[in-house]
Design a protein that fits this description.
22 strands, alpha/beta, TIM Barrel, 4-stranded mixed sheet, 15 helices, 431 residues, 2 domains, 5-stranded parallel sheet
Length: 431
């Protein structure tokens, strides 16, 4: 799929023809305009203590090397966005490998480190993930989660809503009501799902006002914070001027959240999640009703508990949960604050609960919470399982998802597939 096919499929002929000239005018003849936009994005992120992750089609690094060398030297994370901006789902495994290998070579030639990838149009398949893993990449950001923040009665035209829904369908987006926005391993490669609506949807599909864009991204952050999940925001550099107020509004909103929001690049989130994946919590019975909790000796690890008596070892954190002041402490609870599942429960369920930081066992009656059933378990079941856990009043202790007691994580990202008007015009010819 090239640009023209993408526009026709995702927006329809009439809407595409209306929007294509507008999109083209956002680029200049030289790289100067987009260079300023990219550096402006980095400036805004830096002002809030973070840096963006920019997924770049690697042919641009060959075409405009100094732009991306400077961005990398400034500390921006660059990820690979394919060799050219084409539909990876339409390529076979050998073609995908050739594209990614050529792209990685372009990064390496310029001394630009790269750890992650996002497929163009976030369209991918198992070959995409397997190839990226085999070529040494640490993470992908290819799944998308659509948040319910665009009500149908919001004054948005039926045509605009239809264009937005077509985009969600093309991306294969899952509704946040059924899919958690959390890192997970897909075919052995960590995936960090992106959140929608992004800037392209807000500006070119839904045609929202600047004030509405600000509110939509703040609403996503509020939902993510309440759930303790992850908000991977996508903002393309060519729309920075149009979405600057929304970006600054949501970043300012992060400063008001308690517990705090962890602002990090995708590479930083990936490094943490890989590190955290090896950690386990130990809960030992030391006397009747008394348990010794032993967590990994890592200052970034946060252990949280609810429904237990930990005395001075615990301090208030969020809702019913308290946070441990140290990695080793004692608590009192009527039962072991852990989760048991049926003997024949899906192994995938156990893997998910362990990844969530709980102590889990098959069978037994000594755990405070038992999750019955779940002989099969899919990604779309995660939200339901978490709802059952949250709705129970069972005492529980777990390793929290994010470092240093952050309630949720947020990452600023962008996809860079054109730097000049010529780049934009060439896109339909590059497959």
């Amino acid at each position: 799929m090239n640009l023209i096919a993408y526009l026709l499929k995702s927006r329809g002929l009439v809407n595409s023809m209306q929007r294509l000239p507008t999109i083209a005018t956002r680029f200049g003849v030289s790289t100067a305009k987009m260079d300023r936009a990219l550096n402006g994005y980095v400036d805004i992120a830096n002002a809030y203590g973070t840096t963006p992750t920019l997924a770049v089609t690697a042919n641009l690094i060959e075409r405009h090397p100094s732009v991306f060398e400077r961005l990398s030297q400034r500390g921006a994370e660059l990820a690979i966005h394919g060799w050219v901006h084409t539909d990876y789902r339409a390529l076979d495994a050998d073609e995908q490998r050739a594209h990614i290998e050529r792209g990685l070579a372009a990064f390496a030639q310029r001394g630009i480190p790269v750890e992650g990838f996002r497929c163009p149009y976030v369209r991918w398949n198992e070959d995409s993930v397997t190839t990226a893993k085999e070529l040494g990449l640490q993470y992908g950001s290819n799944r998308t989660v659509a948040w319910d923040v665009v009500p149908a009665d919001d004054g948005i035209s039926p045509r605009a809503l239809e264009a937005y829904r077509k985009g969600l369908s093309l991306y294969g987006s899952a509704e946040a009501a059924s899919m958690v926005s959390l890192p997970s391993f897909v075919n052995g490669l960590l995936d960090l799902p992106a959140s929608l609506p992004d800037d392209e949807a807000l500006v070119d599909r839904l045609r929202t006002t600047p004030q509405r864009r600000e509110q939509i991204w703040r609403d996503i952050l509020d939902e993510v914070h309440a759930l303790g999940e992850m908000f991977v925001l996508i903002l393309h550099h060519e729309r920075l001027a149009l979405c600057r107020s929304a970006l600054e509004a949501v970043l300012t909103h992060t400063q008001d959240r308690q517990p705090h929001v962890w602002l990090a690049s995708l590479a930083e989130i990936s490094a943490w999640w890989h590190r955290r994946a090896g950690y386990r919590l130990q809960i030992d019975l030391t006397a009747e009703g008394t348990y010794r909790v032993i967590a990994p000796d890592d200052p970034d690890v946060a252990v949280v508990a609810r429904g237990v008596d930990g005395g001075a070892a615990l301090r208030p954190w969020f809702g019913d949960y308290q946070m441990a002041r140290s990695s080793h402490f004692s608590i009192r609870a009527p039962k072991r604050p852990a989760i048991s599942v049926d003997e024949d429960a899906s192994p995938t369920l156990l893997q998910f609960l362990v990844a969530e930081g709980y102590v889990v066992q098959r069978g037994g009656s000594d755990c405070s919470l038992h999750l019955g059933g779940w002989r099969t378990f899919e990604d779309t079941d995660k939200r339901a399982v978490l709802a059952v856990i949250d709705a129970s009043d069972a005492p529980l202790v777990r390793i929290w998802r994010w470092p240093q007691g952050a309630r949720c994580a947020m990452s600023l990202t962008g996809d860079v597939d054109s730097m000049t008007l010529v780049d934009f015009i060439r896109r339909p010819l590059e497959v």
